[in-house]
Amino acid sequence: MDPTLVYNIQSGTIWDWRVAVDLFAGGVGVGALLFSVALSRYGDARYRRLAQTAGVIAPFLVMLGLLFLFWKVGNKFNVYQMGINLAPTSLMWWGFLIQSALVAFGLLYAWMWLKPEANPGRSGVGLVAAFFAILVGIYHGMLLAVLTSHPVWASGSMVLLAVLAFASTGVAGGVLAHQLRMMFAGRADEEDELDVYVRGLKPVAGFLAAVLVLMLLNFFAWWVDLAFGSLQSRQALDAAMGVHGTLFILVGLGIGVVLPLALVALWYSRVRAGSPGAALSLMGVASLLVLVGGFVIRYSVVLGGQVALPIATLS
User: Fold this and answer.
1) What is the DSSP string of 165-204?
2) What's the whole-number mean pLDDT along residues 111-135?
3) In angstroms, rounded to a whole number, what is the distance separating the alpha carbons of residues 65 and 28?
4) 274-295: pLDDT as tens digits
5) Of 168, 172, 145, nearest to 156 (Cα)?
6) Contact 156, 145 (CB under 8 A)
């Protein structure tokens, strides 16, 4: 008998752009659902339609991300094994359970928003869905952070990145979707309603700006952790930045974080000046840029964390 051992190992990038799409779309869905629940519970009547829009789009974004993840899976017919086998020590098994629960409760929550007056139990369902949404958002970060063989990912900053990413892109996605809804419904031309809506966005704009600032601080802490860490950490940072650094810094941080911050500041000036139309346009552009930057950051982190490091040799 031939004692040769054969290892079937996938070469090159294991997690490709489809995983980045899953993390991005799922993060937007998680954030949009939490945004909707927060607005419906703590906001007044001005936020009702915005909460409705965010709540309806949320589960479909999560499902869109899962479709891309399913596309990435090698043997797709074995996915059902996740549901019939117990694997409590597997992070991905837990991810399968909580994401399935999020989709189920998210769809129920979205359906109840279609006829809000006829579904008084929507608030309770929203809280349950929000619980699973928070777990999924944390899971997205842990999915990277627990892989200690990849220094770019193996940091608490990755968990915080996931939380801040779904907070920023979820709000941006909900706001942008609602502005498109207003435009198609013709309500964007109604000056009185537009002024009420735009002024009601002040706490939303403030929250978005705060999250973007925290993202910059988190990225700085992540960079310091790698740049002044072990030799492997420094090499991993150099390798990732060498391949994806320009995209990450210019588009992810520059266009997706810094520029939206400037637009939010300009939005406040237009609101004070009594120009709701201009303010609405600024918020729409800022939201779009946050979404673009959110995807680029996810893409750069997922792909950059898998760039091959130089082989250690004795000299």
Assistant:
1) HHHHHHHHHHHHHHHHHHHHHTGGG-HHHHHHHHHHTHHH
2) 90
3) 10
4) 888 888 899 999 999 999 999 9
5) 145
6) yes
Task: Give the closest residue to 280 by CA, choosing from 193, 168, 153, 162.
Answer: 193
Per-residue pLDDT of 3-42, as tens digits, reads 554 444 444 577 889 999 999 999 999 999 999 999 998 8
Residue tagged 């997205």 (tokens): 140
Residue 314 has pLDDT above 50, yes or no: no
CA distance 100 to 106: 10
State the Cα–Cα distance between residues 133 and 71, nearest whole angstrom.
Answer: 22
Question: Quick count: other Cβ atoms within 10 Å of Cβ 108?
Answer: 18
Q: Are the beta carbons of 102 and 125 closer than 8 angstroms?
A: no
Calculate the CA dihedral of residues 109, 114, 116, 120 and round it to 10 degrees. Answer: -40
Residue 260 token pair: 């939206």
Q: What are phi and psi of 13, to 5 degrees?
A: -70, 125
* Tokens linked to 251: 């588009």
Please check the confidence at residue 226 and state whether its pLDDT lies above 70.
Answer: yes
Q: Is 284 left (phi over 0), alpha (psi -120 to 50) or beta?
A: alpha
pLDDT-derived band at 89 (thresholds 50, 70, 90) equals: low
Does pTM top 0.70 for this prediction? Answer: yes
Give me the sign of the Cα torsion angle 262, 265, 271, 273: negative
